[in-house]
Amino acid sequence: MNDGRMKILEMLQEGKITAEEANTLLRQFPEQESQKESAHADEERGYGDGRLGLRGELKEVGGEIWEELKGAGEGLKEAFEEVGEDRSIFGLPSMIHAGIFNKSQPFTFESKEVSQAINSLKLAGKNNSVVIEGYDGDTIKIEGSFDPKLGREPNVFFSEQDGDFEILYDYNAVYSLKISAKVPRVAISHIHAMSKNATIDISDLSASNVVAVTTNSSVKIDDVNCEQLQAETRNAKISVESVTAEHIDLATTNSKIVLDEVVAKEAKLKTTNAAIKLSDLDVKKLFVKTSNGSIKLEDVIKKADPDVADGHSEYTIEAHTTNSRIQICLPKEVGYKIQASTSTGKIASDIEDLHFQERKNSYMSAISQKYEEFKQKAKINLSTTNSSIKIEDSGKLGCGKSCSEESCKEKLDSDNKESDNGEQDSNS
């Protein structure tokens, strides 16, 4: 290789010129000489028959740079680990694991022993999932990964201060960041999980307040005991199962809300252009609203316990939609005040011992006979447009969970088919 070509490659290695500039300069040498010199250099370095030319030179230079950066990164990693042993903040600069090459990089953190209550746990992902799960341990364990932007340093940290735990990082330095956490089953005041375009899954724990917020992906809350539960997303499903809470607030758009085995004093559920399905609930004050989607309420009032002397309780249920049906299954031994309205649709009820104060095809107002004598009372307000409302006895075939799978299968399949067809018609 002549001195001119060698000088250009040295400048490239030193970072004084870019690869594109080096290529332009090398083209100025006579083609024949360039090919000859490149072939000779390739053969000396063991790159084959010399056909690689400049690519062989660049590969060697790149390899040397990579080794130097990797060595520096390992040194930085050791230095930060030493700092982390004596402080409650553990650093993870992206350069340590060659984030400059835009590869997904893992991270793990573990808190000191959590002997008392956790004041707050805040975990924010980006374009990837956030999972929080309770377990029988005494430390918070976190695993995750991030995809750094080229040349950027996310500086992912796990911060602990006075019972407040949080993942911190430069949000604008990553394309995505995923978090999975195991949390001791101790008293927790506040859990806040956030992400964007990815799922949030919280399960098997207790806390005073639980907040889950994402977009364009689902939220799932399972086996959670709390005072306040708030979940919000867009264009994706919210699913809540086996939850006990004082107050529940769920909101999404263009997708379903599903609740099963939920106990609460108050619950507010809102979506658009999708169905809401609730089953096996004991919620004293329930508000449900959607549009262009069906509402199905199965076993949403708990029967009075005959062994409890003072078993008095009152329920309020409101359910509103447009252009789709409402079906509610109600138990006996409860006194009802019911109002239901629709337009260009029908209202049907098979609840026994109802006194109809007003009854038309599109409107009804009714009250149970001897209403004041019931221990369990419920005020129900239902409304839709351009579709039907069914108010049914949960003890009868095909309504609620009171019938067996075999005996109800045919009717349930028919109801589901009718509901799906109604949703398709309303969305078309």
Verbal overview:
This protein is of the alpha/beta class and 428 residues long. Among the domains are: 3-65, no CATH class; 256-428, no CATH class. The protein is built from five helices and 23 strands. The protein has helices at residues 3-14, 19-26, 31-44, 54-86, 405-427, and strands at residues 90-92, 105-110, 118-124, 130-135, 141-148, 156-161, 164-168, 174-184, 188-194, 200-213, 219-232, 238-251, 257-270, 276-289, 295-298, 313-320, 326-330, 335-341, 347-349, 354-359, 363-368, 376-383, 389-393. Strand 6 (156-161) and strand 7 form a beta hairpin. Helix 1 packs antiparallel against helix 2 (19-26). The radius of gyration is 32 Å and the shape is elongated.
Order of helices and strands: HHHHEEEEEEEEEEEEEEEEEEEEEEEH
Helical proportion?
10-25%
β-strand percent reads 35-45%
How much is the average pLDDT? Answer: 81
- Total strands: the figure is 23
Oligomer: single chain
Distance linking N and C termini: 71 Å
- The poorly predicted ranges are 45-53, 79-101, 402-412, 421-428
Gyration radius over CA? 32 Å
Protein structure class: alpha/beta
Give the overall shape, derived from the CA principal axes.
elongated
If helices are DSSP runs of H or I spanning 4 or more residues, what is the number of helices? 5
Largest sheet: 23 strands, mixed
Task: List the keywords.
428 residues; alpha/beta; 5 helices; disordered C terminus
How would you briefly describe this protein structure?
The protein contains 5 helices and 23 strands. The protein has 428 residues and is α/β, with parallel strands linked by helices.
